[in-house]
Amino acid sequence: DTAVSQTPKYLVTQMGNDKSIKCEQNLGHDTMYWYKQDSKKFLKIMFSYNNKELIINETVPNRFSPKSPDKAHLNLHINSLELGDSAVYFCASSPPGLAGGGETQYFGPGTRLLVL
Amino acid sequence: AQKVTQAQTEISVVEKEDVTLDCVYETRDTTYYLFWYKQPPSGELVFLIRRNSFDEQNEISGRYSWNFQKSTSSFNFTITASQVVDSAVYFCALSGIAGGTSYGKLTFGQGTILTVHP
Q1: What's the angle, vertex CA A76, arms to CA A75 and CA A82, rounded to 5?
Q2: B111 to chain A: which residues are within 8 Å by CB?
Q3: Distance CA A77, CA A23 (A)
Q4: Spatial distance between the Cα atoms of B93 and A73, rounded to a whole number of angstroms
Q5: What is the Cα–Cα distance from B95 to B33, expressed in whole angstroms?
Q6: I want to staple B48 with a disulfide (CB 3.0 to 4.6 A). Which of A66, A81, B29, B36 is the partner?
Q7: A40 neighbourhood in chain B, CB within 8 Å
Q8: Closest alpha carbon within chain A to B38
């Protein structure tokens, strides 16, 4: 009965490879997000999708491409991985809000990516 | 642009002490939301509280309490009678609404590492 799940939990790969991280939520939420947490624990939003539509793209390199096949899934594909991509990537989801934002975001367990 | 500052990088206390984690924010939005999240050593992010900008009432939940002061743009978090299990990184975050400058996205502070010693 996991609410927001991510696979894989750990990902170790070589520079230059392409990899994907999958996220699924069973909360019935409309909006999903990807955040990156760097080695200093700083969390920053990367993307947000609402009902499969991209609504936030925070100046992330083109090598990162989110894909939302349906509103319960938001996957993150990364091309040509670089050393600086090593981080923890969190997926999150939030319910629709009357005010169009500001709803609580519930996070997945994170995917620890290490690029060698 | 929105900004959240948690000036305390690390705090160390002994069990049963009270501890307050500071959070100061900046935003041009008139309607916004403030949050606290906990990240224990296991790494997940756990939601603790959400507060909107029009509700300045303090909130208490068990040993946790929050003090929101719009006049000083602060949203501080106090743990009373701390326990070893409270050891974690605590994040304060800010979100705006549609039509505002930061629709839907959470802007996080740098986090405060809290260590509670037995």
Answers
A1: 160
A2: 41-43
A3: 11
A4: 24
A5: 5
A6: B36
A7: 110
A8: A107
What single-letter amino acid sits at B35?
A: F
Which among A43, A105, A107 has the least Cβ separation from residue B44? A107
Beta bridge partners, A114, equal A12
> Which H or E run includes B28?
none
What is the Cα–Cα distance from A24 to A75, expressed in whole angstroms? 8
What residue has token string 């500001």? A102
Question: Which chain A positions have a beta carbon within 8 Å of B96's beta carbon?
Answer: 101-102
pLDDT tens digit sequence for A44-79: 999 998 888 888 888 789 999 999 999 899 999 999
Sign of the Cα pseudo-torsion (A104, B93, A114, A64, in order): positive
Residues in chain B: 118
What's residue B74's pLDDT?
Answer: 97
CA distance A82 to A71: 29
Which helix (H) or strand (E) segment is A21 a member of? strand A19-25
Q: How far apart are CA B113 and CA B11, in angstroms?
A: 6
Q: What is the CA radius of gyration of chain A?
A: 14
Q: Copy the structure tokens of residue B117.
A: 């010693």
Other Cβ atoms closer than 10 A to B61: 9
Among B42, A25, B110, residue whose Cα is nearest residue A34: A25
pLDDT digits (tens, 9 = 90+) for B52-108: 898 888 889 999 999 999 999 999 999 999 999 999 999 999 998 766 555 678 999
Task: List the end-to-end C-alpha distance of chain A, in Å, as a whole number.
Answer: 34
